[in-house]
Amino acid sequence: MLRRTFASESEYRAAWNEAGEPANATRIYDIAQYVGNELGPEGFRLFHNGGLPLLRRRREAVWDEIVFPTQPNAGDFSVRFHLNHDKVGEVRARFWRPSTRAPKAIAAGDIGLLDSPPVWSLWAAGEHARTAEAVLNELQEHYLPWSDLFDDPPRLKEALREGNVPLIDLSTGVELILAEFDAREAKRFYRSVSEPAWPPVFTSRPAGFELHEDRLATIAAYYQL
After folding, report:
1. Which of 85, 69, 86 is closest to 77 using CA atoms?
2. Backbone φ, ψ for residue 59 (5° rounding)
3. Which of 7, 74, 141, 192 is the most exposed place for a label (fewest CB within 10 A)?
4. Is 170 helix (H, G, I), strand (E, B) or coil?
5. pLDDT tens digits along 127-136
6. Nearest 5°: phi and psi at 106?
């Protein structure tokens, strides 16, 4: 089995903490290298983040990171992403205290959270060639279309208005409109959406970012929405 999926984060965490055969760091690096080479035309490059393989790309204000953390007591690994937006950081800095700690994170989590329905995943490093191909397919089918949406502000705005951007809560949606357009457009967007109908958020924030999802009152007051 190349990939195990879990419907809940608690099930995933229990599996993550299981004991098993020790990880083969070389195989996981080979998987990351293969995926990075295949995604090179999309702008990704392979780096290391504290020993973890890390794929990174930057497109002006938007930048992605994809990491391959390994189980602490076994040999499987996960594939996680962080999506960041410099202009959203600037929007937040205006009402954040202190402004220097305003996070740039848009969303983060297991790449399986972009599946329908969303799942958490553990990938097997044993058959690393087949696993590498499976990880690449998952990224190409689900992650890249989602991430690339943030390069097209008009299309992003319509998708946000329709509630069709997974992992983006309403507060972040308003911040994205402020970042890509202006306060007038953000007011139109804010008043056109129904908060109770906004889709649920399946996301895990990067450690160190105190990014609470319920920021609407503060955003609306500061930007007079």
Report:
1. 69
2. -130, 90
3. 192
4. helix
5. 778 999 999 9
6. -100, -50
DSSP 183-219: HHHHHHHHHHS-GGGSPP----PPTT----S--HHHH
> Is 52 within 8 Å of 36 (Cβ atoms)?
no
Name the residue among 101, 107, 102 with its Cα closest to residue 82.
Answer: 107
Beta strand residue intervals within 111-162, DSSP E: 120-123
Number of domains forming the structure of the chain: 1
Give the structural domain span for 120.
3-223
Sign (positive/negative) of CA torsion 55, 53, 75, 125?
A: positive
**What would the pLDDT profile of 130-168 be if each residue is shown by its tens digit?**
999 999 999 999 999 999 999 999 999 999 988 889 888
DSSP state of 69: P
